[in-house]
Amino acid sequence: MKFKRLPALVGLSFALFGFKGQASLLINEVDYDQPGSDTAEFIELFNAGNTSLDLFGYSLSLINGNSGAIYRSFDLPDLQLQAGAYFVLCGDSANVINCDLNVSPASNLIQNGAPDALALFFGASQIDSLSYEGSVAGFTEGSGAGLVDSATVAYLGLSRWPNGADSDSNNADFAQACITPGMANTDRTSGCTDPVVVPPIGVPEPAAWLLLGAGLVLLRGPRGRCLHEADGLRTTVGHEPKRRL
User: Which of 16, 136, 149, 185 could join 65 via S-S bond, C-beta 3.0 to 4.6 A?
Assistant: First the structure.
């Protein structure tokens, strides 16, 4: 993550209103190429910080590697993204799970490189960037050499690994891996399947009724003490934190 084009006024606002908040938002995953038509493209952002941040004022730009010009730019909505949460921008939410911002076009949204780049801005300041299939001047951290999405294998993309890792070197931080839009990245590169939302793990309904019966029988514990959640009668188990929308 690097910071560029930082006007004095913007720099002052960073200093006064939480520079660390802006610094924690990262480009975390991209899938720009699929077998056949590119109709399931997405870019995932990740709040790697310890506090929530407001996405208002951020924009995501797509960079043409031949000219270095921005060919598409999208303003992010005014919402709070919780610490450890994800935000997914896609071209067709019918083909991308956990898509938070559906933009146009629905196909061929992101150019396929050799090279091209993505850049995250806060105001006029460049917060993070990713060059792929080579390096794009002004939009590369370290080098983008060797970062190639697959045009022949489904459900492969480019992901930060470990999830959210940032050493300011694109081809050290990113690698080809199975896609996980809106979820923690993986390092798997084979056997990729269409990602699905994993529902929270709960107590099966029959077991829940048994627990309810046990609770009625054991409403009062030893020495007349009432049994509460702390006694283990209620447990909530869920999957990893998701973004707050």
Answer: 136
Domain for residue 169, yes or no?
Answer: yes
Residue 68 lies in a domain: yes
pLDDT at 235 over 50: no
- Residue 1, SS3 per DSSP: coil
**Is 108 in the same domain as 38?**
yes
Q: Could you give phi then psi for residue 173, rounded to 5 degrees?
A: -85, -30
- Any idea how long the chain is? 245
DSSP state of 42: E
Confidence class for position 197, pLDDT limits 50, 70, 90 = confident
**Alpha carbon 133 to chain centroid, angstroms:** 21
239 and 136 share one domain: no
Taking residue 234's Cβ as centre, other Cβ atoms within 10 Å add up to 12
Residue 67 neighbours by CB under 8 Å, 6+ apart: none
Question: Domain residues for 206?
Answer: 198-245
Provide the number of structural domains found in the chain. Answer: 2
Q: Is 109 part of a structural domain of the chain?
A: yes
| DSSP-derived secondary structure for 125-161 | EEEEEEEESS--TTS-SS--TT----SSSTTEEEEES
Phi-psi region of 230 (alpha: psi -120 to 50; beta: other; left: phi over 0): alpha
Q: How far is CA 122 from CA 108, 158, 184, in A?
A: 25, 23, 24
Instruction: Give 144-163 pLDDT, tens digit per residue.
Output: 999 999 999 999 999 999 99
Could you tell me if 139 and 245 lie in one domain? no
- Which residues are bridge partners to 87 per DSSP? 45
